[in-house]
Every structure is written in C-alpha cells, then in structure tokens.
Amino acid sequence: MATEDSMTRRAFVAAAGGVTATAVAAAGVGSALAADSAAADKASASSAADAGDATTVGYDGTGVMPWLGEKPQISDSDVEETVDCDVLVIGLGAAGVPAARAAAESGAKVVAFEASSQINSVSSDMAILGGQTQAKWGRGDGYLDKKTIINMHMGECSHHCKYDIIKRWADDSGATLDWFIEPSTDLYIASESYEDIPEESQSNYLYPYFVPMLESYDYTKEDMPCYPTSVGFSSLLTVQKANLQVAVDKGADVRFDTRGVELITDASGAVVGAYGQAHGSDKYIKCNAKAVILATGDYLCNDEMMKYFSPQVVENGIQTLSLDLDADGNHTNVGDGHKMGAWAGAAIEQWHAPMIHHMGGGAGPDGRGVIGNNGYLWLNLDGKRFMNEDIAGQQLENQVELQPQRKAYQFFDASWPDQLQYFPAAHGVACYYRDEALPDYTASGLRINVRTPDDIQSAVDEGRCLTADTIDDLLAQIPDMDVDAAKESIERYNELCKAGEDTDFYKSSQRLFALENPPFYAAECGEALILANLGGLESDADCHVYNTDRQIIPGLYVCGAPQGGRFNVQYPISLKGLSCAMCVTFGKIAGENAAAGK
Description:
By secondary structure, the protein is of the alpha/beta class. It has two domains: 85-355 and 536-598, FAD/NAD(P)-binding domain (3-Layer(bba) Sandwich), CATH 3.50.50; 370-525, Succinate dehydrogenase/fumarate reductase flavoprotein, catalytic domain (Flavocytochrome C3, Chain A, domain 1, Alpha-Beta Complex), CATH 3.90.700.10. It is 26% helix and 18% strand. It is built from 17 helices and 23 strands. The protein has helices at residues 11-15, 21-27, 96-105, 132-135, 146-156, 163-181, 236-249, 303-309, 311-315, 336-343, 393-400, 416-419, 444-447, 453-461, 471-476, 483-499, 578-596; strands at 45-47, 79-90, 110-113, 125-127, 188-189, 205-208, 230-233, 253-255, 258-265, 271-278, 284-294, 319-321, 353-355, 370-373, 377-380, 408-413, 432-433, 450-451, 466-468, 520-525, 532-534, 544-546, 552-558. The strands form six sheets. Strands 2, 3, 8, 9, 10, 11, 22 and 23 form an eight-stranded mixed sheet that branches. Strands 4-7-6-5 form a four-stranded mixed sheet. The protein has a four-stranded antiparallel sheet with strand order 15-16-20-19. Strand 17 (432-433), helix 13 and strand 18 (450-451) form a beta-alpha-beta unit. Helix 6 packs across helix 17.
C-alpha cells in the first residue's frame, strides 16, 4: 500500500534535490580542508573527541562491540504499513541509486529507503579503467595495466582488502561508467580537462582529469604514482537524479525521510526483508523482500564506532566534516547498515581506513590549500625537515600527525609559477599555472590543480599564508618555531637543491626547489579533516555478505561505504575518486545480483 511519502514518477525529480557535488566540494568534502581553515563550517565540523567521554576504546579481544547496542524488538503492533517487493535498497547515495536502477531494470519490484530528505551526493570524481567513455580521451580498454594498479592498491591497503573486489572494479568500472551516464541525456562530455564548455552545458558536464597530460609527468617513473584514470562531474547529483528516475519510471517505490532500522530474517538466518521508519513516526514500515541491499554510507558521525574502529582518529583530535543530514539536521552516516548487518550475524572486517587526505596548508573556502599539497620544503616547529615531501596527501597527513603540536609549515618562494608544472598530476596538487582565474562555472575538482597570482595574494590577504622579503622576517612570524634550527634546515635544503640530489630524504630531483627568490611564503599545515571512515561488512565481488563463520547470508547484499574489502588501513591516493567509482560499480552489481537472486 502506497503512502503520501511514496515517490510518484516524474514528481520524483523535483523532490530529490540536495547538496550538489560542486557545493560539497566547496564546503570541503571531496578535498580535505586543513583543520585550521577559517572557512570550515563549525556546524558541520566537530571533533570526535568533543563528544562525551573521549576515551578511545578499540577492540579488546572479547568480541564485544560496545557501539552495537541492543537489537530493536519490533512486534506486529508496532507496524503501521506493510509492503512487499523483490528488492529493498536501504540508502540512496553513490551506491544505492545505481543499485535501485539496476534492480528495476532487471525486472525487480523495488522499494528504496533513504534517511535523508534527498539523494546523498558528496563526491564528484571517479577512478575508471577503460570503457567507451574513457576511449573518447584515448584511455579506453587496455590503456593501463590492470595488474600493476591492482597490486599497488593491495599494497597500499597492506593486503587486508579483497583481491576479487579490487579486480572486479578494474574489470567492470569502464562499462559501468558508460551505463551510469546513459540516462543523463543532456550530459556534455568535454574533450579535455579545461575545455571551454558551451553555456547551455555548464551546469552538467563530464570531464577527464589531466587531458592532455602534463608534459613533465610520467607516472611510470614515480615512486608514488597517481594513475591517469579519473573523470569528474560538474554535478554528480544531476546524473544521480537521472539514474533514480529510471528506477522510478519502472515502478520503484522511493521513500525519502525513511531510515532502515532492522533486517528481518527467517528461521534459517536468511534475510527476508527489513523494517524502516518514516521521519516523525513512532511506528514502523515492514518491507517483505526477496533481497535487501545495504547502501547506508559510513559511520563517521557515530562517536562510539569511531572510538572502536579508528581510535587513533579520536586520539589525534581529527575533526570531521559531513553533510549527510536528515530532516532534523542530524547526521545520517552513523553506521545504521553496519548495525543491521551485525544484528543479522554479518561479520565486520577488522581493518578500517580513515579518509584524511591533506590538501596543503591554509585551505580556503573552496578546500584548496594555498599551494596545494605540493612537495615543497616542509618544516616542523622544531625547525626540522621530517620527510620526503614528494608524497600523496594521505601520507602527508600521516606524517603531520607525528610532528610537535601535529603541525608543520610549507615553504615556497616567488618562483612558484614556473615550478608548478614539475609537480605530479595528482589529487590535491597545484600543477597548472594560469595568469587569470578559471571561468565561474568550472567544476570544483578542476580548480584544485590550478593556481593564479590572485589565489596566492588572496591567501596572504586573508591571513592563510605568511609572506616576507627575507627568510628571517618570514620565520619571525611563525609562532613557536625554532628559528635558528629552521634557518639551518633551509640552508641545508638549498644546498641539496643546488646539488640536484636529496641525500637526506631522497625526494625526486625534479622537485628540489631552493628558497632563494623573494618574496618568500609559508603556509601552516595542521591536521586535515576526516571525510569518511571506510570499513564494513565482509563481502565478495558479487556483493554477498558473510556471517562470522564466513558463510554467505542468503538474501543480503551490500555496496558502497558499508561494503568491506575495498579499503583498509588507509585510503590510497593512487586512484583519484576510487571510492565513488566502487560505489557506482558495486551498486550496479548488487542491484543486478539481488534482482536475479544470485
């Protein structure tokens, strides 16, 4: 029986608004704002350590999960509505939307619950291997070596993730992107990264990153390569809406402001449906389903789960940024899917991956660091150089967390416009110089890699970047800096740069730039914000969920952030937009398999 909250067909689009990928990136999601950014929205960013007891928990060897709580006890008298379907999708974000579409296209009767009032859309980039869309930019099937990419991902995750899951993404992501953009008939596909987009297409276009590739960048010769796989959307939300509309047109019953509460299992342990709860109701919706897909997002805003699975994040005082909200403004990424799975006997993987990639010091309101996370000279407050700075943002964050006051400074000089071209074509890196600003319509992701003189001057004017005509005057502006040690470190660094070899930390010689041309600049680099904590139910490449005996739970599927086996220990940066790409790829797989019962 339908209710007034059910989605009718074309009426769906008008109601399915939400935070656009562009707006999210501007707020800092999609690029990690430095924790000291004055632009961070204090209403959305909070420290996990601020909430109640800040004691970190962690696994204690007993098997007790203190965050789980008691399984709800729901009786027939608590049910206000019963619906029947073939596939129930819980969560409508980057994974749940394609899951609903794929299941509906496969002929299944679909019901979908979403705790928020709209589609969740907090990303814009995808790492894609092959396919017809990528072929438009010369990056089709066979362009990159899958074996090398898969093995690097496995290594970056300390081989805790599932090889079959990573390989399935590598095999299927290209065709999945082709499928995903089909319903968005007005989507403009740019011929290169910074093409001038026709006015009528500026609100909805797809672009490749680093096409044409920087002349100075050869990923095959990098110690920490960023592979040329990535595409971006000016508005992922627009494309998501078009995908969900396909499901609605095929009869899907989409319920926003409705959260999943508890899975229903039969005597054998198979999942046969779930209870949901509409916003403002104290009763439940009972959905009988042949298959249930959990696509509920991560648990970043559940303090107890963060203390348990990533206590170091809490201990380090890392602030969180999340825009997944319900109608009352409460966060929805609180681990509901993880809890439902665990109550039904699902195993949760052991190693989880915080997504905290540093974007450089002094981030502005658009999330960009002053000069990106570029591998210029970085010094801690002891005035010491402490790393090979030529590393990706996630690893930069790891190093900053080890420093006194968990802080460092990034130094560069007036030669920066000529130097950017030698930095890697990678996420968070400023590697393109322009005299003039990009057009206003330019997607947020594309802005990350570009700097203009006005960008640097604005950072100085806003106090996000220090500057002086001498090193002495610059260092004198930095609170708590050991000036004498810093001067020695800079002199030593300049010697290495002029010698053309970094015998201290072995940074690539093409990125050794002496500090010698005034004015000089310094940007404070504190801890970045955490954007997600990835870790979920043990699963396989077909999106099946496993119980604690590592046997498949019939009727239960998972995709997106609650799918385990994708990222472990840390979030790799070699494949920009990999999480979102996996969400879409495995959302499609989950929808198809759930509809087919396989």
